[in-house]
Amino acid sequence: MLQSPGLKTTPDFIPPRRLISTSKSRNIAGSIDIITLGASYSIETSFFSNLNRTHHIVERKSMDWNSYFALRGTRRLYERVCMVPSTALGILGGGYYFVHQDFDPTMSIFGMDQVLVYGMGTIALALLGLALGPVVGNVIFRSVHSNARPLLDKMDREFFKRIVLNRANPTGNPLAHPIPDFYGEKIKSVHDYRSWLRKQREYHRKVMYYV
Q1: Using CA atoms, how far apart are residues 38 and 47, in angstroms rounded to an integer?
Q2: Can you give the pTM of this predicted structure?
Q3: φ, ψ at 193 (rounded to 5°)
Q4: Which of 13, 91, 115, 179 is least buried, going by the fewest C-beta atoms within 10 A?
Q5: Where, by residue number, does the polypeptide cross the bilayer (predicted)?
Q6: How many angstroms separate the CA atoms of 87 and 84, rounded?
Q7: In a shared domain, residues 209 and 177
Q8: pLDDT tens per residue, the chain (211 residues)?
Q9: Residue numbers of the domain that contains 46
Q10: One domain for residues 74 and 33
Q11: Is residue 54 part of a domain?
């Protein structure tokens, strides 16, 4: 564009089109920054959510020995508590059944008195209820703690594998001195397991070397 020599363009003069274009470019740049910030925030949130999800999955796939022994003690408590009503149910059911049977003192059952047979039957049902109590308690425990059931089964296999591997050799052991806690049923903690290991080594040393 041609200008007259007398007209001088000052540095502060900015054409209107230039001003509008700059405003639009700033708005576009700001929008790009906002979109970039939102995208980075979304990626970061997705990353940490996946990281937390993976952490929870890893926690579900592993269990420490203290947690295992705590769950094992809880399972044993369920089994012992269920032994009481199952035994009582066996006694009451057997007693109710045998009381309502026809009683003839002149007749015998298997060559024994009827009262003796009925009493033995009641005791047998009580023992059956006593044996079924731990089974029922274990079923209730596994249904209540269904989330930890796969981990608990895995730890059970690992625990009994360690018991079989580290206990004393039962071959040639004297009947008067059996192997202490052969199945590791008294182990309730990591400390008890270490004590069990010491007892197995002492037993092995006494049997093999008489020391």
Answers
A1: 14
A2: 0.61
A3: -65, -40
A4: 13
A5: 81-99, 119-141
A6: 5
A7: yes
A8: 444 444 444 444 444 444 444 444 444 444 444 444 444 444 444 444 444 443 443 345 678 899 999 999 999 999 999 999 999 999 998 888 877 777 666 677 777 777 788 888 889 999 999 999 999 999 999 999 888 888 999 999 999 999 999 988 877 666 667 888 888 999 999 999 999 999 999 888 887 766 5
A9: 17-58
A10: no
A11: yes
Query: Does residue 3 fall inside a structural domain?
Result: no
In angstroms, the CA 66 to CA 177 distance is 31
The burial class, CB within 10 Å (0-12 / 13-18 / 19+), for 155 is: buried
- DSSP string spanning 119-180? HHHHHHHHHHHHHHHHHHHHHHHHHHT-TTHHHHHHHHHHHHHHHHHHSPP-TT--TTSPPT
Question: Are residues 138 and 75 in contact, defined by beta-carbon separation less than 8 angstroms?
Answer: yes
Structurally, how many domains does the chain consist of? 3
Of residues 147, 146, 204, the one with CA closest to residue 170 = 204
| Main-chain phi, psi angles of 39, to 5 degrees | -65, -45
> Do 74 and 135 fall into the same domain?
yes
Q: Tell whether 162 is covered by a domain.
A: no
- CB 86 within 8 Å of CB 204: no
Within-domain flag for 90: yes
What are the tokens at 116?
């003796």
